[in-house]
């Protein structure tokens, strides 16, 4: 019974690691996409009303 609980916890932990890796991969992707804008405007957020 104890072994089943440990195995279940490892599966939950592994799932959480997968979610974390996916989350950080998405953050990295967003950063890379916004980097040219940041370099040009010194900001990640572009104010389109000032053109």
What is the element string, with H for helices and E for strands?
H
Radius of gyration: 20 Å
Describe the global form.
Answer: rod-shaped
Major β-sheet profile: none
Summed up, the helix count is 1
Q: How much helix is in the residues?
A: over 70%
Low-confidence stretches: none
The structural class is mainly alpha
End-to-end separation = 67 Å
Mean pLDDT value: 80
Structure summary, number of beta strands: 0
Write structural notes for this entry.
By secondary structure, this protein is mainly alpha-helical. It has a domain at 14-40. Helix content is 78%, strand content 0%. The protein is built from 1 helix and no strands. The longest helix is centred in the middle third of the chain and has 40 residues, at 2-41. It starts with a helix and ends in a 10-residue tail after the last helix.
Main attributes of the structure:
about 50 residues
Topology:
Elements lengths: L1 H40 L10
How would you briefly describe this protein structure?
The protein has 51 residues and is an all-alpha fold.
